[in-house]
Amino acid sequence: MERKSEISSGERKVLVRKMLVRFAAFFPVLGLLILLPAGTFDFWQFYLYAGLLLVPMLAVLFYFLKNDPKFLERRAKAREKEKAQILISILSTLIFLAGFIIPGLDKRFGWSQVPIHITLLACVVILLGYLIIFFVFRQNSYASRVIEVDEEQEVISTGMYSLVRHPMYVGVLIMYIPSPVALGSYWGLIPFALLPLSLALRILNEEKVLKENLNGYTEYCKRIRYRLIPYIW
User: Fold this and answer.
1) Which one, of 172, 154, 160, lies nearest residue 219 by Cα?
2) Would you list the DSSP string of 160-180?
3) How many CB atoms lie within 10 A of CB 103?
4) Whole-number mean pLDDT of the chain?
5) For the CA atoms of the chain, what is the radius of gyration?
6) Angle between helices 116-139 and 167-176 (to 10 degrees)
7) What is the spatial distance between Cα 13 and Cα 158, in angstroms, rounded to a whole number?
8) How far apart are the C-alpha atoms of 79 and 104, rounded to whole Å?
9) Which domains are present in the chain?
10) For 91-121, what is each residue's pLDDT tens digit?
11) 51 Cβ neighbours under 8 A, 6+ residues apart
């Protein structure tokens, strides 16, 4: 992998602090969303799931701090510029809130009986999804959290981008749709079933922005026909 542009030591300290604060906030919030509705700390699926997220995320954080800190700076942005994306982000937030709260309620009331081997299989699928996202991040340093085009950004058409236009979102679907099952809930799949719709809306608006602002993206779309799923869409 080609080494990306560096940042100053001061910028690195600010970036590390910002990322650690986000990590410190993420897992307590996740715990509140799941454990509070569950009404118990005796929830081994939650601790397995939290560890499943924590370990790879920390590894990826340290990897990019060393190899591509500029990428982390881009990923740290959270404020969307596109009005349509703000509405889509609200929809996505509601999906994720419901998708994590329902497994907690499921634990409390015993709606689902998910076998251990199914829970573990879901965990393996989640790791596969995160691995796809990591490889996309390695290939595309401009995979920002918000929809924008950098002055130095170029179209990437190799690797997974030669199969579909938005491989990161493929990883997102693979990673998050099985999450309720990893938490021992089948009912939690209902809100996450709306995640493909949310991503489809995001993709349509994102491509509009990219076609208007990123040189060569329109030609890339003509070469790579499928946005998310080969031979389907």
Assistant:
1) 154
2) GGGT-S-HHHHHHHHHHTTHH
3) 31
4) 87
5) 19
6) 160
7) 33
8) 29
9) 9-223 (1.20.120.1630)
10) 999 999 999 999 999 999 999 999 999 999 9
11) none
Angle between helices 9-38 and 83-109 (to 10 degrees): 40
- Integer Cα distance of 218 and 216 in angstroms: 6
Average pLDDT over residues 14-21: 78
Burial status of residue 49 (CB atoms within 10 A of its CB: 0-12, 13-18, 19 or more): buried
Q: How far, rounded to the nearest angstrom, does the alpha carbon of residue 59 sit from its chain's CA centroid?
A: 15
**DSSP string of 42-76?**
--HHHHHHHHHHHHHHHHHHHHHHHH-HHHHHHHT
Contacts of 22 (CB under 8 A, 6+ apart): 76
Q: From CA 226, how far away is CA 233, in angstroms rounded?
A: 5
Q: CA-to-CA distance for 105 and 208, rounded, in angstroms?
A: 39
pLDDT tens column, 184-208: 999 999 999 999 999 999 999 889 8
Give the chain's count of helices (H) and strands (E): 10, 0
Q: What is the pTM of this model?
A: 0.85
Helices (H), 110-143: 116-139
CA distance 127 to 133: 10
Contact 129, 172 (CB under 8 A): yes
Residue 159 — φ and ψ, nearest 5°?
Answer: 60, -135
Residue 182 and residue 52 in contact, taking contact as beta carbons nearer than 8 Å: yes
Reading the block at residue 69, the tokens are 């800190």
